[in-house]
Design goal:
12 helices; Rossmann fold; 2 domains; ProC C-terminal domain-like fold; 49% helix; single chain; alpha/beta
Length: 270
């Protein structure tokens, strides 16, 4: 399946909240006509109303793709109405956290081609990363189509199996919140050392954003970048002596945090 087929047969976006809106904006920017998109959303934003897509209208008989972007708790109400499109030529792509491929197969039919994806919130500025995995009926063409769609909001990686999805959710799906909390706590620590609150926040925000950009652009790995900043016996070494402490620093704390997120994902998927 290529994008010309998507244009001709149509794409259905089920749910157009923050993630759905980010993806739709990316597709339109990449040249997908708004007239090829059908959006089902009970509370459309002013932005969505202005895009020219088919909004809450009757769907095409056999769309190329249905992209599911509703919250998991809304799935039981939203998805059954699309059951007639299952087990056919329509590819279903889900970005709903915690909803397993088996759940979709039960609701749509086991022969339905399904790709499960986990994006993250930097997709809102085109800097996301999305992990995807398909079921047995999702072939290479389906996966390439899903990659093409999701690359509109950032990088896309493929998983070896769905069993990796909870770990991905815990690292990259939930990970932006960990970084935002780092900014909060770094700014708060700066305040405690005597900086004005506004200045401390500006320093923390720019430092984390700049370090992330450098980590992505540099040829060296993050460990070497850390060494590059750390003079023996200097100020950075003093701080890292605390942060890298195996008992109470980042290594143990981050493993515990990511494990907690992954375990919660497994619970929600049961």
């Amino acid at each position: 399946m290529d994008m010309s087929e998507v244009r001709d047969r149509g794409l259905v976006l089920l749910g157009c909240g923050k993630m759905g809106s980010a993806m739709l904006a990316g597709w339109l920017k990449d040249g997908l006509p708004a007239t090829s998109v059908w959006v089902i959303d009970p509370y459309p934003s002013d932005w969505l109303n202005a895009q020219g897509a088919h909004l809450n209208e009757d769907l095409p008989a056999e769309p190329a793709i249905v992209l599911v972007a509703v919250k998991p708790q809304m799935m039981q109400d939203a998805l059954p109405g699309l059951g007639a499109l299952g087990s056919g030529a329509t590819l279903f792509v889900s970005v709903a956290a915690g909803t397993t491929i088996a759940t979709y197969e039960r609701m749509l039919g086991a022969a339905t081609p399904i790709v499960r994806a986990m994006p993250n919130t930097p997709a809102a500025i085109g800097r996301g990363i999305t992990a995807i995995v398909g079921n047995d009926h999702a072939g290479e063409g389906h996966l390439m189509t899903a990659e093409g769609l999701l690359s509109a909001v950032g990088q896309v990686v493929r998983l070896d199996g769905e069993d990796q999805m909870d770990a991905v959710t815990a690292v990259s799906g939930s990970g932006p919140a960990y970084v935002f909390h780092l900014i909060e706590t770094l700014a708060s620590a700066g305040e405690a050392e005597g900086l004005p609150a506004e200045l401390a926040l500006r320093l923390a925000r720019a430092t984390v954003a700049g370090a992330g950009a450098l980590a992505e652009a540099a040829e060296e790995g993050p460990g070497q970048l850390r060494v590059n900043v750390t003079s023996p016996g200097g100020t950075t070494a003093a701080a890292l002596g605390v942060l890298m402490d195996e008992a109470r620093g980042f290594p143990a704390l981050m493993k515990e945090a990511v494990h907690a997120a992954a375990e919660r994902g497994r619970e929600l998927g049961r």
